[in-house]
Design a protein that fits this description.
It is found in: Nucleus. Belongs to the TFIIB family. Keywords: Metal-binding, Nucleus, Repeat, Transcription, Transcription regulation, Zinc, Zinc-finger. With 201 residues, this protein is an alpha+beta fold. 46% of the residues lie in helices and 17% in strands. It has a domain of 119 residues: Orthogonal Bundle (Cyclin A, domain 1). A 3-stranded antiparallel sheet has the order 1-2-3, covered by helices on one side. Strands 4-5-6 form a 3-stranded antiparallel sheet, with no helix packed on it. Strand 4 and strand 5 form a beta hairpin. Helix 1 packs antiparallel against helix 2 and helix 3 packs across helix 5. The protein starts with 14 loop residues before the first strand and ends with a helix.
Length: 201
């Protein structure tokens, strides 16, 4: 959802605000634009299936006044806790994979942002966690222009490159991420074949 804010990395205005997590992420490139949103004037009301907190989000570095982010509503309870557990596990696994590929912290953070975006849109359901982590790392490699290929990541994760390619295409298409071509004929052909198979099924 666009909030009128532009991404300082890619210029996109497609910014996702997550009130529960208190951050703002660019859905085009995965960059975290704000991760220190805090709540002021919190009120609680009965939402029928748990307490809902209503408050105005302000930047932690603002001079006391609320910004124009508007009012947000989010759930407080076990759902938020279980998601935090999921994100912590993803961070651990993505970090391990990136270290094996000799990728720095920047790539770890970017891949984790893609995972969060997939989690918010419920794209992780019904898919193997290892495939999701690997796909997020591969999306990062493609958007950042590294030399890593699909087979490099599938070898490290010990998963089928074809299955990884399918998960990668599902995520990148669902998240509307602009993926530049790698220029590798074999790589592009493999992904094209997987894409054609997905269209026909």
């Amino acid at each position: 959802m666009s909030s009128g804010v532009k991404c300082r990395n890619c210029g996109s205005t497609d910014i996702e605000e997550d009130n529960a997590r208190g951050d703002r992420v660019c859905t085009n490139c995965g960059s975290v634009l704000e991760d220190s949103l805090i709540v002021s004037e919190v009120q609680f009301e009965d939402a029928g299936h748990g307490a809902a907190a209503i408050g105005q989000f302000v930047s932690a570095d603002s001079a006391g006044g609320a910004t124009n982010y508007g009012y947000g509503k989010f759930q407080v309870g076990s759902g938020a806790e279980s998601r935090e557990v999921t994100i912590k596990k993803a961070k651990k696994e993505i970090t391990h994979l990136c270290q094996q590929l000799q990728l720095t912290q920047h790539y770890i953070d970017t891949a984790l942002n893609f995972f969060r975006m997939a989690l918010i849109r419920h794209l992780t359901r019904g898919r193997k966690s290892t495939h999701i982590y690997a796909a997020c790392v591969y999306i990062t490699c493609r958007t950042e222009g590294t030399s890593h290929l699909l087979i490099d990541i599938s070898d490290v994760q010990q998963i089928c490159s074809y299955e990884l390619g399918r998960t990668y295409l599902k995520l990148s298409n669902a998240l509307c991420i602009n993926i530049p071509s790698v220029g590798g004929r074999k790589e592009d052909t493999l992904l094209e074949n997987i894409g054609l198979e997905q269209i026909s099924t």
